[in-house]
Design brief:
mainly alpha, 80% helix
Length: 128
């Protein structure tokens, strides 16, 4: 499972670079300033959480985290990015307004991921 988190974090980083470049070069002339900002926000949060998934995987691999909560943290980060950033990408590209309520659900999952990471560190023991 740790390998999956590490690969997912790396793929999220790769895709964030690609989507950031696409936004900067391919969408600048096609989107309003507000929609371009929404796109960029999605890219930024995807990037931050690509590193969070990588960090969580690395800490799990070295035994620095409580395994169960560490896996929950990584899972929340992965799904949170899909919902948060994915809904922003969809909205920016003219997707249905129904995507709007999905964004805060993704954001909530990102926050839960960080809370799980904190709890995992605290539960990992004094020698971790």
């Amino acid at each position: 499972m740790i390998r999956i988190w590490l690969c997912t974090g790396a793929i999220y980083g790769l895709v964030a670079v690609m989507l950031g470049a696409f936004g900067a070069h391919g969408l600048r002339a096609r989107l309003t300033e507000d929609m371009l900002r929404a796109w960029q926000t999605g890219v930024e949060y995807q990037f931050y959480h690509a590193f969070a998934v990588l960090l969580t995987g690395l800490l799990l691999n070295t035994g620095q985290l409580s395994a169960t909560l560490g896996h929950w943290a990584a899972g929340c980060f992965v799904v949170g990015v899909l919902l948060f950033s994915g809904s922003l990408y969809g909205l920016a590209l003219g997707g249905p307004r129904l995507l709007g309520p999905v964004t805060p659900i993704g954001g909530l999952l990102l926050m839960v991921g960080w809370l799980c990471l904190v709890a995992s560190v605290l539960r990992s023991g004094p020698n971790a």
